[in-house]
Amino acid sequence: MKRILVTGGAGFLGSHLCERLIKEGNDVICLDNLFTGNKENVRHLMEHPRFEFVRHDVTQPFYAEADEIYHLACPASPPHYQRNPIQTSKTNVLGSMHMLGLAKRVGARVLLASTSEVYGDPLVHPQPENYRGNVNTTGIRSCYDEGKRMAETLFFDYHRQNGVDIRVIRIFNTYGPRMSQSDGRVVSNFIVQALKNENITIYGSGQQTRSFCYVDDLIEGMVRMMECVGFTGPLNLGNPKEFTMLELAEMIVRLTKSESKVIHLPLPEDDPVQRKPIIDLAKEKLGWKPLVDLEHGLYQTIDYFKTVMGSW
Ligand code: NAD
Ligand code: UDP
User: Fold this and answer.
1) How far is ligand 2, taken at its centre, from the CA of residue 298, in Å?
2) Contact 216, 263 (CB under 8 A)
3) Is a pLDDT exceeding 90 seen at residue 310?
4) In 56-214, where do the E strands start and end?
5) pTM for the full model?
6) Is the Cβ atom of 57 under 6 angstroms away from ligand 1?
């Protein structure tokens, strides 16, 4: 049994991770300030003797004994991380420093949930880990993109300077049950709109692409990375199958048998045109590749939203 701290544990990915770690017999502290997370996501774990929820903001120091730290705390959806961009930068920079300081003090291995956003609006396609990115330092996405880039820098400096045992993963768009209805990211927006027979809001032409990974695949990769010996990353984790937003909208309308129509709204500033991971390194180092295709993953996610949105 390991003592594991999960920051952002009441969020979408964090709650699935906590569940998995509890199932494997570990002692889990779930730390979250509930900025975008929700206690409902971990309600089923609350009474578990090896699970503990702590309401705390990672911009403030935190002390606990831990063998491993999964550092996920940070809003991931553009409308949410842009709601209080200074707090987003603080969460990424101060939060990472606090978790790295804690890891140094207690000798824990610490994993950063970084992002494909470190590649910005990529000029190299698809993206390998050694691509250095095309990121705006002054735009509305910068608090998140540059915040995560600084977090990666801190992780590697604590590793070189203090010998902290780090792992860095770069997560590409991941979706699944427990995304919030008001999350604002594309998969949850389209599903909620389709289930309500409301207009599907495509930003811009809809020709921009993303590669969507189902949550179970992502969590498997994340846990394997934490367990991987002698490899810090950075490592891409995502599903390399690429879709336009128009294709995604059409698929969701078909799967939900919705009467929704597509409408086009203005494209947000600095919205990346394309995104697709090269995952050769994950295959080589972790023996990992995603197993769930988009249609099957969307079925699971649609079922979840049907349940939380009431009768359908
Ligand atoms: P999410 O918004 O559902 O979860 C983030 C969690 O962090 C929430 O529970 C939130 O309340 C918590 N949080 C935010 N600021 C905090 C703070 N200052 N102190 C404590 N808790 C705080 O998002 P998610 O999709 O679960 O993302 C989890 C992590 O994975 C994030 O770091 C995100 O950047 C990264 N990531 C996710 C994706 C994705 O597609 N889901 C892609 C790339 C990276
Ligand atoms: N998007 C969209 N309609 C929505 C929400 C998002 O067309 O209701 C687009 C958005 O402009 C982007 C893509 O979908 O091109 C993915 O957006 P998301 O916010 O999910 O993630 P990110 O841009 O961070 O990859």
Assistant:
1) 16
2) no
3) no
4) 68-71, 109-115, 166-171, 174-175, 200-203, 209-211, 213-214
5) 0.98
6) yes
